[in-house]
Amino acid sequence: MPDFMGTNFEFIPFGAGRRSCPGMQLGLYSMEVAVANIIHCFSWQLPDGMKPSELDMSDVMGLTAPRATRLIAVPTTRLICPL
Ligand code: HEM
């Protein structure tokens, strides 16, 4: 995967050059904490006995590259988190 610091123009989520995002580190840390909490606090399963191999991982073209079909994952509480 190319790095996203601004030199690989195919992947610049925070922009590039003099106008690039000054909040990049805060953004990255915030996402890391959010994802870590989601994984830590819940167990995740696919719906209706669906197998991981049945997941459609294709994407569609656009300004971003969203999934072609929605990912449905069912959470069950694993811990009582303080958030
Ligand atoms: C995942 C989180 C974030 C993403 C993906 C993101 C992405 C971006 C992008 C694409 C730009 C435009 C860069 C350009 O014009 O080349 C931008 C600009 C900016 N971002 Fe962020 N950003 C994030 C979080 C933040 C945070 C947390 C802050 C502040 C606390 C912030 C403050 C700014 C500011 C002030 C600009 C304007 C910079 C300028 O044009 O002078 N961003 N951001």
Automatic annotation (TrEMBL):
Keywords: Heme, Iron, Metal-binding, Monooxygenase, Oxidoreductase. Coiled coil: none annotated. InterPro entries: CYP450_84A (IPR053062), Cyt_P450 (IPR001128), Cyt_P450_CS (IPR017972), Cyt_P450_sf (IPR036396). SUPFAM superfamilies: Cytochrome P450 (SSF48264). One of its GO terms (molecular function) is metal ion binding. Pfam families: p450 (PF00067). Belongs to the cytochrome P450 family. PANTHER family: CYTOCHROME P450 84A1-RELATED. This is Cytochrome P450 84A1. The lineage of its organism: Eukaryota, Viridiplantae, Streptophyta, Embryophyta, Tracheophyta.
